[in-house]
């Protein structure tokens, strides 16, 4: 844990877990209702009957509060995935991500434009939301290398996490091509696993 994260955790420890969930819930509701610009410290304070000074003391800025709420809502996305094979891990991750598709899409759309125009939000989102997801996928790849499933210098390795997470982000823009909730698992089978050499000839998924 970074020094900044440890400091933030220490500050938040003064708020009970129940109160923290209430505050984060208010933030997410405001995001869904009106996007990033609709979230204000004043608005969260009013909805939760929390002092505005308390919010600033705990999170310092709106961007930190928003990203903390997003991080809390997504923290368990890839937690605990370790099937014993790289293909199994990636398939489990794709299923987990697809199951969260609806809820995540609303929130990502809400912060999408703000991400481009607010550097502080961009930095905070990368630290608390994007980087942990990338790290989890990279860990699956490292385990695959250690088991001898793929070579450590396989040229597809650097592109797995960007491709995997990229489909999640752009899927709403291509609803005509991805009408079902299983777009990411399908992409995994059609593109990522063949690129890693983890599917048999013809690209068919092996029988369980």
From TrEMBL:
Pfam families: TetR_C_11 (PF16859), TetR_N (PF00440). Residues 17-77 form the HTH tetR-type domain. Residues 40-59 bind DNA. Keywords: DNA-binding, Transcription, Transcription regulation. This is TetR/AcrR family transcriptional regulator. The lineage of its organism: Bacteria, Bacillati, Actinomycetota, Actinomycetes, Kitasatosporales.
């Amino acid at each position: 844990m970074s020094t900044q994260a440890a400091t933030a955790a220490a500050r938040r420890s003064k708020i009970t877990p129940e109160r923290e969930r209430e505050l984060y819930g208010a933030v997410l509701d405001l995001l869904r209702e009106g996007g990033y610009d609709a979230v204000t410290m004043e608005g969260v304070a009013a909805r939760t009957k929390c002092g505005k000074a308390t919010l600033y003391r705990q999170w310092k800025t709106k961007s930190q509060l928003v990203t903390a709420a997003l991080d809390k809502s997504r923290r368990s996305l890839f937690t605990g995935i370790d099937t014993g094979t790289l293909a199994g891990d990636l398939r489990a991750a794709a299923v987990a991500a697809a199951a969260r598709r609806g809820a995540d899409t609303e929130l990502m759309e809400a912060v999408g434009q703000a991400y481009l125009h607010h550097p502080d939000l961009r930095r905070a989102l990368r630290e608390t939301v994007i980087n942990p997801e990338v790290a989890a996928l990279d860990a699956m790849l490292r385990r695959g290398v250690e088991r001898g499933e793929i070579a450590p210098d396989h040229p597809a390795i650097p592109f797995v996490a960007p491709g995997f997470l990229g489909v999640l982000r752009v899927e709403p823009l291509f609803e005509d091509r991805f009408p079902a909730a299983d777009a990411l698992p399908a992409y995994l089978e059609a593109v990522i696993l063949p690129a890693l050499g983890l599917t048999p000839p013809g690209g068919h998924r092996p029988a369980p």
